């Protein structure tokens, strides 16, 4: 299957977190990974590191705003979260398309009236099977990489659930033709997932969970259907 061509889009990446320092030189930072998901090199789309207080002066020139993952919780008292939520609402009102991944999925939900909390099941790590609607009337089971503890527990009014897993009922949301968000990480590679698991083993996740997550990486993960879904959503609308 060919890679969708996102080359005509002017993209801004809203960076809310950073990749692990141990392998950043090899895999890039979270903004780099999100750009690669849309077929862009690190210097081919704008990054705004909102976690450092860096925000765009104007979003009107962008076709797409992508909100990255993060180790932070959207409910934490960081100075940059409220203005990041306002950026989401401004984009939503102006019709600038939004894509949110993991933390971005949660931030967009919270900004638009949803609720995010730590999930009762704890950390969900590794390759996870998702029941996902790739297009209207077309549902499939698709394994994707996941790393999260927080979850959307109440969806905003008007949001449509497009993805779920056994432990995450609101793993993907669509907001008409304005926004689409995913709890899993289609931008993560298998190699980065492996490094992340080992870097967080013992300190963030237990050895037992790390072992299970490592075993799950044997599951083939193909993000091309997600790229096609995002392309159809962004370009066709």
How are the SSEs placed, and which strands pair?
Elements: E1 11-15, H1 24-27, H2 30-37, E2 46-49, E3 64-67, H3 81-94, E4 97-101, H4 103-111, E5 115-118, E6 124-135, E7 138-148, E8 150-154, E9 160-164, E10 172-175, E11 179-182, H5 190-200, H6 207-216, H7 224-236
Parallel strand pairs: 1-2, 1-3, 3-4, 4-11
Antiparallel strand pairs: 5-8, 6-7, 6-9, 9-10, 10-11
Structure, described:
With 237 residues, the protein is of the alpha/beta class. It has a domain at 11-119 and 149-188 and 223-236: 3-Layer(aba) Sandwich (Rossmann fold). Helices cover 29% and strands 27% of the residues. The protein is built from seven helices and eleven strands. The chain has helices spanning 24-27, 30-37, 81-94, 103-111, 190-200, 207-216, 224-236; strands spanning 11-15, 46-49, 64-67, 97-101, 115-118, 124-135, 138-148, 150-154, 160-164, 172-175, 179-182. The strands form two sheets. It has a nine-stranded mixed sheet, with helices on both faces. It has a two-stranded antiparallel sheet with strand order 5-8. β10 (172-175) and β11 form a beta hairpin. α3 (81-94) packs across α4. The longest helix has 14 residues, at 81-94. The model has no long low-confidence stretch (mean pLDDT 96).
What is the count of helical runs? 7
Topology as a string of helices (H) and strands (E): EHHEEHEHEEEEEEEHHH
The CATH homologous superfamily of the domain at 11-119 and 149-188 and 223-236 is named Class I glutamine amidotransferase (GATase) domain
Which structural class fits the helix and strand makeup? alpha/beta
Strand numbers in spatial order across the main sheet: 2-1-3-4-11-10-9-6-7
Instruction: Sum up the overall morphology in one term.
Output: globular
Instruction: Please report the first level of CATH classification, the CATH class of the domain at 11-119 and 149-188 and 223-236.
Output: Alpha Beta
The whole-number mean of residue pLDDT values reads 96
Proportion of residues in β-strands: 25-35%
Helix content: 25-40%
Largest sheet report: 9 strands, mixed
**Second CATH tier, the architecture of the domain at 11-119 and 149-188 and 223-236:** 3-Layer(aba) Sandwich
The rounded distance between the terminal residues' Cα atoms is 22 Å
């Amino acid at each position: 299957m060919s890679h969708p061509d996102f080359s005509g889009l002017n993209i801004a990446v809203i960076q809310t977190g950073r990749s692990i320092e141990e392998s950043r030189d090899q895999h890039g930072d979270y903004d780099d990974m999100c750009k690669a998901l849309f077929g862009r090199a690190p210097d081919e789309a704008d990054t705004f590191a909102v976690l450092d207080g860096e925000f765009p002066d104007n979003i009107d020139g962008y076709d797409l705003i992508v909100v990255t993952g993060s180790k932070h919780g959207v409910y934490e008292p960081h100075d940059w979260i409220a203005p990041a939520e306002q950026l989401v609402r401004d984009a939503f009102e102006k019709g600038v398309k939004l894509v949110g991944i993991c933390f971005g999925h949660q931030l967009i939900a919270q900004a638009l009236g949803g609720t995010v909390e730590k999930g009762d099941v704890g950390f969900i790590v590794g390759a996870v099977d998702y029941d996902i609607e790739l297009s209207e009337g077309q549902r499939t089971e698709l394994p994707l990489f996941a790393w999260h503890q927080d979850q959307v527990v109440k969806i905003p009014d008007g949001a449509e659930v497009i993805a779920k897993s056994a432990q995450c009922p609101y793993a993907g949301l669509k907001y008409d033709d304005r926004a689409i968000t995913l709890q899993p990480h289609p931008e993560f590679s298998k190699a980065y997932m492996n490094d992340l698991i080992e870097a967080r083993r013992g300190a963030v996740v237990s050895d037992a969970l790390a072992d299970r997550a490592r075993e799950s990486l044997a599951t083939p993960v193909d993000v091309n259907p997600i790229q096609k879904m995002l392309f159809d959503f962004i370009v066709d609308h």
